[in-house]
From TrEMBL:
Keywords: Signal. The lineage of its organism: Eukaryota, Viridiplantae, Streptophyta, Embryophyta, Tracheophyta. This is Prolamin-like domain-containing protein. Residues 1-27 form the signal peptide. It comes from the Eukaryota. It comes from Brassica oleracea.
Length: 100
């Protein structure tokens, strides 16, 4: 390998390392504490199914539990696939409007 090729390889390695350091990781996401959902039978599974558009399994009790979760957290529905809790709160608000 001549000097010009070595410089290109080094430049590409530095660029690759720099890009990987800047990339946001999943570790930065704040996941929702699952304790509230664990208290309602089938709630977590119903929420996973709801990500596909089927909301018939969501119960009023499950939606009450969803509303107790902190704003801005993410629910890990599937490995590598997290949804903002606002997604589920909106579904629950449409299915079970809050009575005033």
């Amino acid at each position: 390998m001549n000097m010009k090729q070595k410089k290109k390889v080094i430049f590409l390695l530095v660029a690759l390392i720099s890009a990987s350091m800047v990339r946001e990781t999943e570790a930065d996401a704040e996941y929702c504490p699952p304790k509230a959902l664990d208290n309602e039978d089938g709630c977590y599974d119903a929420l996973r199914i709801a990500t596909g558009g089927d909301i018939r399994w969501l119960s009023k009790e499950c939606c009450t539990a969803v509303r107790t979760l902190p704003d801005g957290c993410y629910l890990l529905a599937f490995p590598g696939k997290a949804y903002p809790i606002d997604f589920f709160t909106t579904i629950c608000d449409n299915k079970f409007p809050i009575e005033k």
